Amino acid sequence: MNDTNNSPVDDSAPQGIPSGETASESAPPPAKPGMKKRWLYLILAVMFLFVLMPYLIWQATWFGKPLNDKQMADAFADTDHPRNAQHALSQVADRMESPDPMVRATAKPWYPQAIAAASSSESALRSTSAWVMGKDPSVPEFHEALQKLLVDSDPMVERNAALSLVRFGDVSGHDMIVSMLKPWLQTAPVEGKLSTRLTPGETVNVGTLIGRIETPGGKVEIRTKMPGTIDQWVVKDGTPVTMNQPIAQLDPAADVVLNALAALYFIGHENDIPAIAPYLRNITGMPLSVSQQAKLTIDAIHTRMDVPPTAKP
Questions:
Q1: What is the CATH number of domain 62-172?
Q2: In what side-by-side order are the strands of the sheet with 228-233?
Q3: How high is the pLDDT of residue 32?
């Protein structure tokens, strides 16, 4: 450190320590000015990342950002990034639901893209398309496409199609909707030895990694096909499993239950009441709206049966 004053320095003490004090009694020497600046820049950079990263994640996952027609066209044309087409489809849905008739009219030119997405190799696009097409039950082409999606390879696509068909007065997805109230069995994607990652009680979304299967060719990831909560592992950790063997049971997520109950309000019948009745209770992890909707749905079924709503299921 350069000495900037002209006062004499006691050579008996180390540089930077006043005369009469020892190193043990003195505070550590101050950092060099250059070092202070480097730390300051580093801290500022880290703080900037803490602000920037959530914004970037939000930008990448949020579909509410408005798109103009050119951006919509570019998004649908971008086959390398399916999420862009999902964003565009969500914008079509927003236009379809607008209270302004002029805005709603701007959605119709994009209907062919919504129908085309129903045939995409990307399950996320097919699922979003099924959701969008349910918002305009006046379109016969939507109805036809939704009926085909009822037998999709992805269960989330099938569920969205079943729910959307209710808007068309079509009850062909009834059994699929009732199944949404019941636990879901996750199956093994390949044969091998199970290695669990999550424990019962943990919540999962579509695509959450819950475990792996060890095979001679390496480890294969097990990702959930449904949102919900892990109720139990049907197969213990370290156990050999076969392809498509049930390995875990998931309780349905609250929004899945609400959607199913809302649909059954319109198309449910007497045989559905045993599947609905458990949700009359306040279930841990479920909002109050679930039990309220369950009661409304059962009352609606009773009304269709010409049975007093207060009758016990």
A1: 1.25.10.10
A2: 184-187, 246-252, 228-233, 203-204
A3: 54
74, amino acid identity: D
Which residue numbers in the chain have pLDDT < 50? 1-27, 47-61, 310-313
DSSP assignment of 156-225 equals: HHHHHHHHHHHTTT--TTHHHHHHTTS-EEEE-SSSEEEEE-S-TT-EE-TT-EEEEEEETTEEEEEE-S
Tell me the one-letter amino acid at 21: E
Looking at residue 12, the DSSP 8-state letter turns out to be T
* Burial readout 154-193 (b: 16 or more C-beta within 10 A, e: otherwise): bbbbbbbbbbbbbbbebbebbebbbbbbeebebbbbeebe
Strand pairing of 218-223 and 209-215? antiparallel
184-245 folds as OB fold (Dihydrolipoamide Acetyltransferase, E2P) (2.40.50)
- The DSSP 8-state label assigned to residue 24 in this structure reads G
pLDDT at 79: 87
pTM score > 0.90 for this model?
no
> Contact at 8 Å (CB) between 154 and 126?
yes
Domain ranges of the chain: 62-172, 184-245, 253-313
Q: State the pLDDT at residue 51.
A: 45
Give the span between the Cα atoms of 26 and 10, in whole angstroms: 15
